[in-house]
Amino acid sequence: MPPLVRNLIVALFASLFMAIPVSAQEASTTETAPAEAAPLETLVEVLKDDAARQTLIEELEAQIGNTAGPVEAAPPPAPSLGGRLADMTKQTAEVAADSAARFWRQLTGLPGTLGAIGSGDFDALGRQLLDLVLLALITYATFLVLRLVGERLRRLLLAKARFGTAVVRVLAALFITLGNLVLVALAWAIGHIVALTFFGTPGFIAFHHSAFLNAFLLVEGSQALIRALLSPRRAELRGLPLSDADAYELTRRARVLVSVLVFGQLLLVPIANRSLSADAGTMVSVAVLTVMLALLVNLVLNYRERVTARLVAFTHARAGSGMSFLAQFWHLPVLAYLIGLFVVVVVQPTTEVLPILGNTAKLVAAIVAGFMVSHLLGRLIMGGVRVPPRVAERVPLLETRLNAFVPKALGALRLLVFIMVFAFVLDQLGLFDLGGWLESELGARVATSTLTVAAILLAAFVAWLTLNSWVDYRFHPDSGPPLKARERTLLVLMRNAATIAIVVMAAMFTLSEVGINIAPLLASAGVIGLAVGFGAQKLVQDIITGIFIQLEGAMDVGDVVTIAGVTGSVERLTIRSAALRDGNGAYHVIPFSAVTTVSNLLRGYSVAMCDIAVAHAADLAAVKAAMADAFAWVKASPAGEGVIGEFDWVGVEAITETGVTVRAQIKALPGKQWPAKRAFLAKVMSVFEERGIPLAGPQRIAVFAPADPPAAALRHQPVPE
């Protein structure tokens, strides 16, 4: 049976049957019967005589040789349930009766013990108390001066925390607490210097001075931690969901409890033990513990209704349910526990009481820490995650993604904290061996798997968040040169592929860590992939061809291209197809599997072929000069802003029955060749008209019959249509 439960059972039995008052430490002596010297003297005489000693050795060896082997005794029968219950009840009753008898002997012998204390002992005790009062005044005055010196820094941190985020508030509370602990340590060190220098012999410190300074360090250090937890004056730094009035009241009561316990056990009890007697020290210890338990009972009764209301609101318990019953009558088991502790204090020695109080303090600390962490996580969940404005502007979806993941992760952490606190409480009560379970194979496996899975999921989320944030940043106009459509398509493709890879790898690692064999899953995935590959060959071909076309940069959105026999402007590019708008306004969606050649009309530079048909009788030199003049005019005009080359006369391109076709080339920037060509042709037409250069056209031959045929002459004249 665990010591805590056994001691409480003993205490309850004693309190029910024996009406025990305050105890003191037993001061009894044990009488020992005188040992008989005759057998020892005989043995010594035998050992001194060589012959007798040899005879004794031979007899012993003969006796060993004649002794038969050990006979295994039959195992005792297993006790029944009733037998075990009877043994436990018998042991408990005997321990309670023994404790009651011992206490009665101590109580009846206490007057004689106190009477043996002389007046000189009380005089020495008074002088020690006077020294203690003086050292306490100096130490606490030094502590107050140090707090006044650090007040400016504390106010600065409070101002930062008032308008800061949750993380800033936590950091401010942490720095304030560390500063208070440093001030306590400085005051403790100065107190030691004062005690070593001005009290008693220089260089030596009295026992009661050292005891007081240690108690001061523990009391004020505990008070600094309590103020950090409850923060009675700053609600924004408070770790528990309490009002200002409740926080102030609990801080005051906690200080009283800690002061009574620490100064009583670490100062008054050692002084009483050393200056008076052990019985007096025991009496002081019992009195201190009794006062502390009475203060705790008063605290429970005063806060019964307020704690009930908060428990009902926290658990959302309905009227008549089990949780509602526990929330309304929570004080009953707590009061029973405190009464049991009081009985243990009275019955058991101090060495048995302090471990129980230590376990109780651990329980309270674990529950308070669990509530504090739960409250902090709840505030973080409700407050959400805020990123700096500049980061939010460049990566607009970062805050949304964080708020989609972080609250769920904090909720899982909150549940884990609750489970850990519950398991620790059961372990301290002796109902569950937490350390043994963690050391077992199952416990180690569960703990390791939980931490590993959490690390895998966290790493996967960080990788996914980093990848998406970088892609969003690259899409932002202020991140650098504007991205082309091809680069945007490749970035989206990379993000989607990397996301799938991260999800699959995280799932595989997680399943493997929890003990699931992923080999069949991988084999099934391979079979499914093979089947999908055979059934969607065209789709796979589209995607693979599209990837290489995008990587090679064959076309971008806005380019004029010819693919699969269609010429038009590219309006949309995906990983599987390209969408074109031709000159007639028709919209074409062409899968990349149908693309064998990409003809891009807007890469590097463009050339406009200008073919002009002139009459057979036109002077080609005059035609070339007119076209050169027209080109010069166009290049100087707004239409020729994209022209990058000089006039390029190619020459005669064709001769037909209607005329002669001459060609010139205009080299321009991509997309600028068409407006330059239109302006050039229009100007050539006007220059030809001004210079009388005839254009090509159909010709007809008319034959006129004269009145005098022999004298008539034939005339050939082209007739324009």
From TrEMBL:
For this protein, the record's InterPro entries field holds: LSM_dom_sf (IPR010920), MS_channel_1st (IPR049142), MscS_beta-dom_sf (IPR023408), MscS_channel_2nd (IPR006685), MscS_channel_C_sf (IPR011066), MscS_channel_TM-2 (IPR011014), YbiO-like_TM1 (IPR057485), YbiO_bact (IPR045276)
Short name of one Pfam family for this protein?
MS_channel_1st
Name the residues that span the membrane.
129-149, 170-199, 254-272, 284-304, 325-348, 360-381, 402-426, 446-471, 492-512, 518-536
Q: Which domain of life is it from?
A: Bacteria
Membrane topology per the entry is: Multi-pass membrane protein
Extent of the signal sequence: 1-24
Protein family according to the UniProt entry: Belongs to the MscS (TC 1.A.23) family.
Q: Which SUPFAM superfamilies match?
A: Mechanosensitive channel protein MscS (YggB), C-terminal domain, Mechanosensitive channel protein MscS (YggB), transmembrane region, Sm-like ribonucleoproteins
Phylogenetic classification of the source organism: Bacteria, Pseudomonadati, Pseudomonadota, Alphaproteobacteria, Hyphomicrobiales
Q: Does the keyword Cell division apply?
A: no
Record key words, sorted: Cell membrane, Membrane, Signal, Transmembrane, Transmembrane helix
This entry carries the following GO cellular component terms, namely: plasma membrane
Give GO terms: molecular function aspect only: mechanosensitive monoatomic ion channel activity
Q: Where is the Mechanosensitive ion channel transmembrane helices 2/3 domain?
A: 499-537
Q: What is this protein called?
A: Small conductance mechanosensitive channel
Residue ranges of domain Mechanosensitive ion channel MscS in the record: 539-601
Q: Could you confirm whether the keyword Membrane appears in this record? A: yes
Location within or outside the cell: Cell membrane
Q: Where is the Moderate conductance mechanosensitive channel YbiO-like transmembrane helix domain?
A: 360-437
